[in-house]
Amino acid sequence: MTADSNIEPDLDKLLSEKSKIRAAEPLTFLEAFFAGLYGGILGLLGLIVIWADTSRFKKEGFLLKSKKTWRIYWIAYGIRMLLIVSIFIIFDYFRK
Length: 96
Hints:
Helices cover about 85% and strands about 0% of the residues. The chain is mostly helical. Helix 2 runs antiparallel to helix 3, helix 2 (about 30-40) runs parallel beside helix 4 (about 65-95) and helix 3 runs antiparallel to helix 4. The relative contact order is 0.13.
């Protein structure tokens, strides 16, 4: 048994613990704010930005950030679409 074989399990354990910590890191306020902004204001154009952000998060090991970003984006986009449809229905009702 060599000294190098003793180091490798410790390194693997350290990397595993680090990846677990990264995977569970929550979104910061600004990351959540911009995900909502892109979904609520930019709509489908914001999808391009969100796609790039979530791909980067996933590549770097931030799995929770990636998942939460998608969730916030789609909720904001859904609220936007609900408001647009509601406004059209209200205007159509009063137009008659």
